[in-house]
Amino acid sequence: MPGQSTLMILPLLMTSVFLLTGCPPAPDLTQWKRPDTDIDGVRVAMGKCGVQLPGPDIPKTDNESVLYYQCMENMGFTRKDGFNICSVRVYHDTPACRTQEQGNPLSQSQLEALPFVADRGFHPIKPDSGVSNSSLITWRKAGASQHFSHEIENDQQALAVMYQCGYPQPLGSVPYVPTLRKAADVQQCMLDKGFEPKYKLSLVCRNYPQVTACPKT
């Protein structure tokens, strides 16, 4: 009865990993498979692709997540659940997925024409969605207190400057997101005015430092 044995083995495996590491295994650890490769082999491969286990859960950009999946696939792994990351809309327009789709690297103009979705400040709000404009405020004055008691004041200050720099006015009113190049210009305006993003991964230049508007180090 293969089905029953699998159901018995997986909980035991998860329990063993929990006892050894003090935390449950990452879902990916049990989802990748390759002939003649055990779970330790999966862990080693994940480390080579940038995911160390055990180790801290380091946030990735959308493109970095795709590159991780592609790295595992290039080493001969497939997913037990059949998940195809590039079939998910939020990942489909990443350079890694587009490059795989067209079979060669994107040109600079192709890269900069891709839509940028990591900054919620550019997201459209669907009618009757219940999403408030204030939830799309993604900046605060650099060095401002992050205590919740200052949140309204910080948001009011940031919103005015977001409008000055080119975010949709009001937030959520434009039914599409900007290109990487356009978003980079708007975000650079915010940085120049002394603001910082609430979430570092929302910066174009953190995601794609090769964009023309990004400072070169």
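(ticket continues) Second input and output from the same batch:
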Amino acid sequence: MPSDAPAPRDTGSAPQSRSPSPNGNDTLTLRALVSTKDAGVIIGKAGKNVAELREQTGVKAGVSKVIPGVHERVLTVTGSVEGVAKAYSLIVSQLVSANPSSPVTSNSSSPTTAIRLLISHNLMGSVIGRNGLKIKAIQDSSGARMVASKDMLPQSTERIVEVQGSSESIGQAIEEIGRCLLEDWERGVGTVLFHPGVGDERSGRRPHPTGRRSNGEGRGRTSPSPHSPSSPQPTNLRTQNISIPSDMVGCIIGRNGTKITEIRRLSGSKISIAKEPHDETGERMFTIVGTPEANEKALFLLYNQLESEKTRRVGRDQQQQEEMQD
């Protein structure tokens, strides 16, 4: 799995300058994991609440589609740092007022709740800071409490940062978190996004996308291989789907398919790649079929390839900047 990102500069205050974002205008996209019930509150009847949220803050906001049997959805908010922070503050206020399934405590003048942000594993160092100084400074200045998970979510390179407090304190904390993320946005290149339910054998999110360079498409799951009749195929095969940013697909496939072929060979899993993006995010779906052990190895190899490409691109960009300054 990807290694921990190097700790950023040893500072406890919010950054005063930041590297240019990929969009060139400091646009932040911040995702959060919400329950299906909370998602209904955020959207509102006929989309009324989310429409008002967009109008009041100027952000783009939406919630992922419902997946049968999965009780979580992903909230995505995109806009300026201030707009995103204000949007999350308003969302928290809505959840407290509606008293849904979110844990809410009303034993003080300002009811408190929590929001679970999805943060790239490689950007956690930017939020936590060296020796935890950054996260402590954010908590002290905002009054919110932050708890960062240690493990990445299944089939992704994202982790959860739970922000607890009042709507105002959560909004302040998210604004500072957003500035940290934009400061080091290069570290987030190649993040494999988490999708609730991914890894289950389910029918949602195009479980059988049209793949390319896939191996053995016509073979049944439990029938013996025609080339080795004495070695029946394992019966405990699992199907796992992960989404990969379109601009990173080429680095996984490699020239003439050499890299994806090597990943298939080393892992023993069958990996197919959708020809087209599966939704408006522009991501491509990778479908991995194999034993749990083989799939785990395939995911490890895929994530390592993404991490190597991310490091290569950051180094290339830094070199180009240095050449421009000379």
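Agent notes: Confidence is low (pLDDT under 50) at residues 1-24, 104-108, 200-231. The first helix runs from residue 36 to 43. Closing as not reproducible unless the customer responds.
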